[in-house]
Design the sequence.
């Protein structure tokens, strides 16, 4: 019985192999030019796949750096940090909430710019109309336009001078390596200016509470315990989140 089963299996294997061999001979003989061209094309695609995967992983690893250095994300997260410090709420809202809020506001503000990058660079590259290098050149242009619009001339001149490069005649002549750090320090300065303005009303409340407690002789009571509810009440009454978010979005659009 075992011998019959073994013979049956061998017959199936040989029959399948003969059928596949016959089909390959009928459809495309291995010696024909079409078959050789197909094999060469498959080898080329197979050899280029690892390189494409490496390029894709490299691009994905740069996404956080691009998000921080070439969008309004830095300004938003720094302002939110100053706001939390001014309120004195320590970890409320926590870092995850502030990062998520800053991220989605960044996507909202950068939506038109990112759409232009997709239409001009990413989509034509996916469709095979342009090369990867051409897509990179076209994709960086909308981001450069946004950064130049929000970069101070003083900061840009600083990095051009430090690079010992020639003075650019037009905005297109500004090197990206000088534009990105100039944009970042411009964003940091603006964020610190907004943070200073946010601190003022809450600082006034802290000084008033401290003076009142000192005049009443309540030196053992920490002023922050009394001033914290007052600052939160003031922030809620003036609809602080609405005012801050609307002002930030208007400043980065």
Sequence:
């Amino acid at each position: 019985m075992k011998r019959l089963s073994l013979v049956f299996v061998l017959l199936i294997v040989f029959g399948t192999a003969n059928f596949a061999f016959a089909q390959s001979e009928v459809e495309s003989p291995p010696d024909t030019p079409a078959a050789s061209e197909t094999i060469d094309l498959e080898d080329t695609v197979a050899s280029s796949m690892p390189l494409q995967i490496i390029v894709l992983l490299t691009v994905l690893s740069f996404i956080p750096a691009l998000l921080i250095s070439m969008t309004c994300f830095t300004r938003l997260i720094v302002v939110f940090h100053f706001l939390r410090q001014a309120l004195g709420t320590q970890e409320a809202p926590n870092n995850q909430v502030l990062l998520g809020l800053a991220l989605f506001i960044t996507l909202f503000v950068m939506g038109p710019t990112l759409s232009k990058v997709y239409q001009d660079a990413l989509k034509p590259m996916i469709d095979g109309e342009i090369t990867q290098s051409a897509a990179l050149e076209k994709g960086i242009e909308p981001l450069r336009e946004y950064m130049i619009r929000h970069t101070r001339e003083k900061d840009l001149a600083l990095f051009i001078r430090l690079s010992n490069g020639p003075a650019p005649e037009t905005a297109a002549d500004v090197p990206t390596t000088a534009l990105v750090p100039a944009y970042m320090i411009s964003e940091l300065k603006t964020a610190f200016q907004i943070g200073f303005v946010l601190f003022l009303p809450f600082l006034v409340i802290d000084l008033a509470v401290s003076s009142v407690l000192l005049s009443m002789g309540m030196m053992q009571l920490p002023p922050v315990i009394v001033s914290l509810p007052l600052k939160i009440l003031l922030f809620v009454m003036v609809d602080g989140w609405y005012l801050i978010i609307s002002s930030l979005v208007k400043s980065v659009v």
Q: What stands out?
A: The CA atoms of residues 160 and 167 lie 7 Å apart.
